[in-house]
Amino acid sequence: MANKLIVSPSPHVQSMQSTASIMRDVVIALIPALVVSTVVFGVNVLGLTALSVAACVLFEYLIQRFLVKGSCTICNWSAVVTGVLLAFNLPASIPWWIVVIGAFVAIAVAKMTFGGLGKNPFNPALVGRVFLLIAYPVQMTTFPAVANPALDALSGATPLAAVKHGVEAGVLPVQDLLLGNMPGSLGEVSAVALLVGFAYLLWRRVITWHIPVTVLATMALFAFCVALARGGEASLLWQFPLFHLLAGGALLGSIFMATDYATSPMTVKGAVIYAVGIGAITMCIRLWGAYPEGMSFAILIMNSVTPLLNKYVKPKRFGVK
Amino acid sequence: MGGVHPSENKLSRAKAIEVLPLPEVVQIPLAQHIGAPATAKVAKGDKVLTGQLIAEATGFMSANIHAPISGTVQSVDLQPNGQGVRQMMITIKREGDEWVDTIDRSTELKKECTLAPQEIIAKIKEAGIVGMGGATFPTQVKLSVPPGKKAECLIINGVECEPYLTSDHRTMLEHGEELLVGVTILMKAIGVSKAYIGIENNKPDAIAHLQQLAASYPGVEVTPLKVRYPQGGEKQLIAAVTGRQVPPPPALPIDVGAVVCNASTTYAVYRAVQKNMPLIERVVTITGKGLKEPKNLLTRMGTPISTLIEAAGGLPENAGKVINGGPMMGRAMVNLDSPVTKGCSGITVMCGAEAERKSAGQCMKCAKCVAACPMGLEPYLLSKLSQKKKWDEVEAQMITSCIECGCCQSTCPAYLPLLDWVRLGKQTVMGIIRARMAAAAPKK
Predict the structure, then answer these.
(1) pLDDT digits (tens, 9 = 90+) for A267-281
(2) How far is residue B193's CA from residue A225's CA, in Å, rounded to a whole number?
(3) Which of B5, B291, B329, B370 is the mutation pick for testing A, counting most A CBs within 10 A?
(4) How far is it, in rounded angstroms, from Cα A202 to Cα A225?
(5) What is the pLDDT of residue A179?
(6) pLDDT average, residue stretch A6-32
(7) Average pLDDT over chain A, rounded to an integer
(8) Is the peptide bond before B250 cis (omega within 30 degrees of 0)?
(9) Nearest CA to A129 among A295, A254, A275, A244?
């Protein structure tokens, strides 16, 4: 027998997906939002995103090479994803050195300290963002007006902040919220672009619908109940929930951050509980907290619950009633 | 619930069953079924006829074995099996083709069966029939409904969810009428009035053919099923057809009133009961993307697997792996001269890169293994706990429910050897459970 045969236990079939292909798909899914952001805030956006990605990849490379002394992990694209998501959570006017600090906190503190991909308890990009929000509150909450002269510029406050400070949006700018014609962090401005990314991720089987849909449904229901309790015009009953879904980081967070593999629960049941928690906490912070936006905090808080959910919420075992 | 949809690759689906020429020498392992190995009834130098009993079932959980060719017994000794493990085998050198004269070799359909249930089961036992889908569970044991239990329906497994394999598919197409008579015989044996033939939708020709035939067999219904591996697993099939889930081990399908029998096995039952034909041949799919001519071969038991590979155009230059069975649950072989046995539904040859395991990365908790597990287990957790030798914990996480279908590992984007670890954990835990039961049993 000329052939040397390989002997290994079954199965003899392996996935067409790989860690790298999945991470690459997430990056691809973020491209529409990047394009819209560039149109809205100017080319500066591309520079910021590139810087964030480069810093994240470099920090991971250096730590893996000189501290962990393990095999190179940057080829799995996960640092790229963290880099893009971190940039997407920053205002376009952020100074470059703050971006680098954010990247360091995200990769060095939130990810590599715990052993790298799959072992971090909190979403690295969000840890980076929240660190910056607390350390550099002024730079992190100054949003430039929309740069594109072709668009009808809104004021410098994000829609959520405007509502927070008692400025009732007279007419709900649904079209602006959908297309991204509003101030905000880089990645959160266009609902349409984010939903295109969501569709792509579903089609490529990178994520399932459970977490994003549950987060958004919880938020909508919560907003609906609040609107109902407050009374007022009947049209608010749908406008108020819709506003909360489209404004701020609700879509970016629920589609791209809450679905982070390592920090979300392993079972569908667990994921639904987790997502309900994120939706409810976000709305509490938005309505009654000190910050106009609560998505980041809500996700990080529920990240901390994930190990418990994994321990106690088990899949439906076959044959067990 | 759960499951995956690997590329089907049914290369030989349209190839009619061909008869492989009689082999010159056959090797017959005494252990080719679940349970005790059979006891050899022949010795070196004995002349045997085709269909003659050469090894007898040892006790209840065992199966008879018959000579697949006529000739002289050359040896009864240890020979390497497909995995290179030495097993007791009877080696027969062929001389002509002389049959035991009670066997009816005609192809004429014989519908009437006037035997009583016990007589049917006795004939099936006599013919040495075992589950031919790969599990090789002795069929007469399956049909002997334990006291206190009651069979409510018969389910014929025509799912063939393993990629590549087409032997059940071709049998259903080419021996549909005999198969249906087999179904009625099995219904009578276990005393049920309802039978379902479960077939996945990727075999529309078999579904249409059997539906048309089943119209004249009262109580027999063809159930088309959505394509989903591992739906051909006994528990999955029962759930798909009846909606009932078999509880975790030690519960059996009969606990939910179901008896499941594979399609090829049902055809073998027909031949055993109506034609006195023991289980001495079967259809084997010889397949693989690198093979010149994938096909379905009617093969005598004991034929060297290398003969089948030659019949399909020989082993390709870059062949890297030869699997006894399909790519999801089959076993990689080291010895290609080992024989075809009762449970061998196919031989899959993999070439080049597809034969190699890609190097494993790091678990990123994507939860795809949890979503894919048809038993509702958490493979990532079982694998991790098994690596850490936490046997109490893996037992509490129901590792013994694992059916080793391989969905978890085949869906893992980090290419982790999940099932390797789960198997280790499962076997260890089963050993612990046996030891515990032995310790708890009253001492004699």
Answers:
(1) 999 999 999 999 999
(2) 56
(3) B370
(4) 30
(5) 66
(6) 95
(7) 88
(8) yes
(9) A295
The pair of three-digit structure tokens given for residue A203, joined into one six-digit string: 């089609």
pLDDT of B221 above 70: yes
**pLDDT averaged over chain B?**
95
Does the structure show a pLDDT above 70 at B397? Answer: yes
The residue whose two tokens read 């106690």 is: A312
Tell me which DSSP letter residue A3 carries.
S
DSSP SS3 for B365? coil
Of B319, B371, B419, the CB nearest to A11: B419
CA pair distance B47, A6, nearest whole angstrom: 39
Q: Which domains does chain B have, with CATH numbers?
A: 117-275 (3.40.50.11540), 368-440 (no CATH)
- CA separation for the pair A183, B354 (Å, rounded): 50
Average pLDDT over residues B266-293: 96
Closest alpha carbon to B200 in B227, B220, B240, B173: B227
**Quick one: DSSP state of residue B130?**
B
Q: Are A13 and B6 in contact (CB < 8 Å)?
A: yes
- A139 with A94: CB under 8 angstroms? yes
| Token pair in block for residue B269 | 């039952």
Task: Report pLDDT for A279.
Answer: 96
Element (H, E) at A163: helix A159-164
CA–CA separation, B94 vs B25, rounded Å? 6
Q: Among A102, A91, A88, A93, which residue's Cα sits nearest to residue A33?
A: A88
What is the residue-wise DSSP string for A247-313?
Answer: STTHHHIIIIITT-TTTS-SSHHHHHHHHHHHHHHHHHHHHHSSSS--HHHHHHHHHHHHHHHHHH-
Contacts of A73 in chain B (CB under 8 A): 362
Ranges of beta strands (E only) in B142-219 are 153-157, 195-200
pLDDT digits (tens, 9 = 90+) for A185-214: 888 878 899 999 999 999 999 999 999 999
> Regarding beta strands B295-300 and B281-287, do their DSSP bridges make them parallel or antiparallel, or are they unpaired?
antiparallel
Q: Are residues B209 and B176 in contact, defined by beta-carbon separation less than 8 angstroms?
A: yes
Asked if the Cβ–Cβ distance from A118 to B413 is below 8 Å, we say no
ipTM for the whole complex: 0.90
